[in-house]
Amino acid sequence: MVDKKDLDAGFTGTPVEPPEGLAKVAQSAASGVKREVYAVTAGARNHPHTASAVLLTIGILAFGVGYLLGRSSVESARRRYWR
Question: How far apart are CA 6 and CA 2, in angstroms?
Fold first, then answer.
């Protein structure tokens, strides 16, 4: 049989020393990203029509920019390089 003290001897989930330097900055950044993602999802959950309209608008704008960039690259390819 296994002794209960042996099972509890592992990692408890809390570090001995608080993070410093880069670890502290990374932890702070991750915490900020989590808060922002939660805020966006909560807003989208509360206003589904607005969220879908924003996504549709972004998609249309991205398509338009891609179309214009594609057209400009085709027009410049028709020109001869020695002129």
Answer: 7
Cα separation values, 13 from 5, 16, 32, Å: 17, 10, 21
| 20: Cα separation from own chain's centroid | 25
Supply the angle between the helices 48-78 and 22-46 in degrees, to the nearest 10: 110
Cβ atoms of 32 and 38 closer than 8 Å: no
Q: Looking at residue 15, what is its pLDDT? A: 61
**Residue bearing the bigger pLDDT, 29 or 6:** 29
* pTM over cut 0.90: no
